[in-house]
Amino acid sequence: MRASSLSEGRAWRLLLAIVVGGNLALALALAGAQSLGLASWPPATHPDTGGWRLLFSTGEFWRSLAFSAALTAVTLALALVLALLLYRALGAALERGVVARLLCLPLAVPGVAAGLIAFIMLGDSGVLSRLAHVFGWVKSPSDFPPLVYDADGRGILLTHLALVTPFFTLLFARLAAQLRLPALLEQARALGAAPGVAWRRVALPLLLRQSRPVILVYALALFGAYEVPLMIGGARPPLVSVAIAQAVSGYDLATRPYGYAMACLYLALVATGCGAATLVASRGDTHAR
């Protein structure tokens, strides 16, 4: 039975790798052809490398890539810390009841709706600025710190935090139930470990290791997020997904090969990062066994 289940698991992983790898290879081929002008009509008589030359001669793409990576890292780190704090504070209340239902609400909000809600809440004349004016924290709503179309991407960060933190909180609660974490912590305390030490040495490593695949998936989702940065982001440089979309769908046809070159390189970098992360994760699981 065990050998059969292992072979079925390998077969499903192989099928998933073929499907994902095939789609990625097709997307890379199409983006590469568009970046060289070979997929246009009428097709170019020879490859046009102007978009690739512009990509490597200017630093706009690399600045957008670095800013997207930095914002993703900060958002993910803050979301994990807040989720761990919420799980430790709420504990069993996360398994059922009003708290669990409230934390499920942000999971049903799509990106476009989240952008609209963020615009209503965080704008200069939004709900938070008016509440701050009512309580006397600012002299006028316009004095509220700019969180929409701000160059630092603070509105994007807060919006993504509101969407991601509840999910990680519920995930940690479910993983703790599967791992019987309360019993493990009780056993660690019975052996003489202080509550803080037991949490740091037992709960934290187990939760982070078990949630590592999900964290990786959400890191990729945040890194390539499009709707929220497009609707409320005024970051300079723009996030990489917005920069690619603006170059590809803009009115200036001359920028389209440059946009497709950015998309091609972005896909290649993401695929390389996913492969490296998967390899590291598989090696870590092998050592853990």
Rg is: 23 Å
Average of per-residue pLDDT values? 81
**CATH level 4 superfamily:** MetI-like
Strand content: under 5%
Total tally of structural domains: 1
CATH architecture: Orthogonal Bundle
Structure description:
The structure is a single chain. The protein has helices at 2-35, 50-57, 60-90, 98-104, 111-122, 127-134, 154-179, 181-190, 195-210, 212-223, 227-232, 240-249, 256-288. The chain contains 13 helices and no strands. The mean pLDDT is 81. Helices cover 74% and strands 0% of the residues. Helix 3 (60-90) packs across helix 10 (212-223). It has one domain: MetI-like fold (Orthogonal Bundle), CATH 1.10.3720. The chain is an all-alpha fold and 289 residues long.
Write the layout of secondary structure elements.
Layout (H helix, E strand, L loop, with lengths): L1 H34 L14 H8 L2 H31 L7 H7 L6 H12 L4 H8 L19 H26 L1 H10 L4 H16 L1 H12 L3 H6 L7 H10 L6 H33 L1
Concise structural overview:
It contains 13 helices and no strands.
Features:
289 residues; mainly alpha; MetI-like fold; 74% helix; 0% strand
